[in-house]
Amino acid sequence: MSQRARRICVDNPRCPHVAVEGSRYCAQHLQQRLRTQQPTAHARGYDGQWALFSRRWLALHRWCGERDDFRQHAEHSRCTQQGERTRAQLTDHIQALRAGGNKYDTRNLQSLCRACHNRKIIAHEGGWVTV
Fold first, then answer.
1. Does residue 29 sit in the same domain as residue 72?
2. Among 4-13, 60-69, 72-81, which stretch is predicted with the lowest mean pLDDT?
3. pTM metric for this prediction
């Protein structure tokens, strides 16, 4: 039986620890996340209408770092910085809604993979905000 490759903790891009089996986080960051759980998407203002809009956006803008001009932007995408083409998983607001960003303004949106999105949230917004 082959062993699975050990995964690095995804909570912080500088975390040197290996993720706990069955998790994406090391033991320390897993405990922190359990203590300060992120509010639900609905509580943060993301409803069914947003989910449909996001799916349509991702169908058009499939690559990490891609914005409304259909070009790759490296500002928040390590994938683009490294010249990699990674499939996007999330529609991200360049300027956070809580910082005054417009929810449906396509100039405020970009497609990101989960890893780049997590890095952006931690580096630019200080992590998840609890309500």
1. no
2. 4-13
3. 0.68
